[in-house]
Amino acid sequence: MRVFSMAGTLLAVFLALVCLQQQHVANGAECHGKPDPNAKPNLNPIYTEAPVLVRSVKNAKLYTVGGGNDTISLVHLYGTPYEMGYAHGILMKENATQFINDVWGYLEDQVESAINGTIHNLQPWFLKLVADFGLDVALDLTTDATRPFTGEYFYEEMHGMADATGLSFKKIERIHMIGELTKGACSMYGAWGNATRSTNKTLQLRALDWDIDGPFRNFPQITVYHPVNTTYGHAFANIGWTGWIGSITGMNSKQMAISEIGVAFPDSTFGKESRFGIPFTYILRDILQFDSSLTAALHRITTANRTCDLILGVGDGNMKAFRGIQYSASVANFYTDTDNMPVADWHPRIQDVVYYGMDWLCPGYSQVLAAQLQKHHGNITPQNTIEEITAITQTGDLHLAVYDLTDTILYVANARRDGVDGPVKAYDRPFVRIDMKPVFALSQ
C-alpha cells in the first residue's frame, strides 16, 4: 500500500491536473438538448399536511412529509457538529449506511463504465487519477487538495456519523467529493418585484438534473440543523439525501436559499478551474449555515478559494433580491436582471428575473425557460412554477425545490424511487409544501 505525505499528495494532484487548469475542453461549445415540445403540465395535487413524527433519539427527530409514494424524510438535528453527525447516524443508521455504500458502488460503476467506453458522469481529470492511482487514492488526493479550505466542523460531523453507523470515516469523506467529480445539468431562477407583482414575493427555483439511475432518488431527505450556539451558525435545511452533509439545495431561517448548475459548456469568460479550494457543496452549506444576508454570501464567494465551473444562485427574502453567480477558480461575477449573462437571443433579459436553463450555453432549454417566465411575468408563483414553468421546460428530474423566500415556504419533489409507480422524473411528480418557519423553530 502506498502512503502519501500531505505535501506529496498535493504535488501529485497538481501534476495530474495542471493540464486541466490551462483550458476548458468544451470551451465555446453549446449543449444541444431541448425539452419535448409536447411536454405536459404537472397537475398533481400538492401535499400540504403537517409533518408527522415517526421517532426520536437524543439530539435528533425523524418526521415525514408528503404521502403515498412521495414521502420524504424530515430529520431534525441538534447540538455540536459531532453530536449532530452522531445523532443523524443513530436515527437513520440503516438508510445512511445503505446510501453511503450505494454511492460508493455508484462511483465504482461509473469508473467501470468509463473504462469500458460507455456513458458515465465523471470528469476526465478524475479518471486520470483513478488510472494512475486507483479509486481510493484518487478520492484521497481530491480530499487532500480541498482539506486546507474546508471547515473542521464538516469532519467533526463525519466522525460522528462514522461512530454511530460503523462506517469508516474515509468512506464518508470520499463520497462527499462526488460533487467535484461530476457535472449536473440543472436550472434556476430568481424572481421578485414586477415579475411577481400579483403576490409581491421573492421566489427562487432550484431544479436538479442529474443521474436518476443512481442511488440518490431512493433516499430523499430534508435535514434541518439546529446548532447548539451561534459559533456553529443558525438553523438551516439541507435538501438532499440520508447521510449527505454537503449542500446542493437548501434554505435557511434567515430567508435565504441556494441554487446551483454544473457548467459543462462554458465560454472563455470563466477562465481556469482548479482542484485546490473549498468544494462547492461545502461553500453552499456555509452560506446556508452562517450567512444572514445576500451581501454576506457574495462576500464569502468573492473571498473563497474556488474550484470548478458553476452557476450559483443565492436569494434573500429580506432584501427582496437574487443574484446569479458565474463561478470558477478565476472569476466570481454577480448578475441581476439588468446585466444577466450571457447575452444571446435565446437568453433574453427579463425584468426582475435572473435565470439559467441547464447550463451556461444551452439555447434549447434556456429559450423554453425564458418563454415560460415571460408568459407568467407579473404573476410568477410557486403554483405555476410547478404546473408549467418546470414541467414544460422539463427540468428538475432528480429533485426540485421552489422557495418562497418571503413567507419561508418550501415546495419540493423527488424522482420516483424504486418499487413505486407513477412518473419517473421529479418535475412530473407531486410536490410537498412545507411551512419552514415552525420547522426552523422546532425545539429539542
Task: Map the helices and strands.
Elements (H helix, E strand, L loop, with lengths): L5 H12 L34 E6 L2 E6 L6 E8 L1 H11 L1 H24 L7 H10 L1 H12 L5 H14 L3 H7 L2 H4 L5 E5 L11 E6 L11 E8 L8 E6 L8 E3 L3 E7 L17 H11 L3 H10 L6 E7 L4 E7 L4 E4 L17 E5 L5 H13 L6 H12 L5 E6 L4 E6 L17 E4 H6 L3
Parallel strand pairs: 3-6
Antiparallel strand pairs: 1-2, 2-3, 4-5, 4-13, 5-14, 6-7, 7-8, 8-9, 9-10, 10-11, 11-12, 14-15, 15-16
Helix pairs in contact: 1-5, 2-3, 2-6, 3-7, 4-5, 5-7, 11-12
Protein name: Acid ceramidase N-terminal domain-containing protein
InterPro entries: C45_proenzyme-like, DCD1A/B-like
Organism: Salpingoeca rosetta (strain ATCC 50818 / BSB-021)
What would you note in describing this structure?
Keywords: Signal. InterPro entries: C45_proenzyme-like, DCD1A/B-like. This is Acid ceramidase N-terminal domain-containing protein. Residues 1-28 form the signal peptide. By secondary structure, this protein is α+β, with helices and mostly antiparallel strands. It folds into two domains: 6-21 and 81-180, no CATH class; 183-441, Penicillin V Acylase, Chain A, CATH 3.60.60. Helix content is 33%, strand content 21%. It is built from 13 helices and 16 strands. The chain has helices spanning 6-17, 81-91, 93-116, 124-133, 135-146, 152-165, 169-175, 178-181, 280-290, 294-303, 363-375, 382-393, 436-441, and strands at 52-57, 60-65, 72-79, 187-191, 203-208, 220-227, 236-241, 250-252, 256-262, 310-316, 321-327, 332-335, 353-357, 399-404, 409-414, 432-435. Strands 1-2-3-6-7-8-9-10-11-12 form a ten-stranded mixed sheet, with helices on one face. Strands 13-4-5-14-15-16 form a six-stranded antiparallel sheet. Strand 6 and strand 7 (236-241) form a beta hairpin. Helix 1 (6-17) packs across helix 5, helix 2 packs across helix 3 (93-116) and helix 3 crosses helix 7 (169-175). The longest helix is centred in the N-terminal third of the chain and has 24 residues, at 93-116. The radius of gyration is 20 Å and the shape is globular.
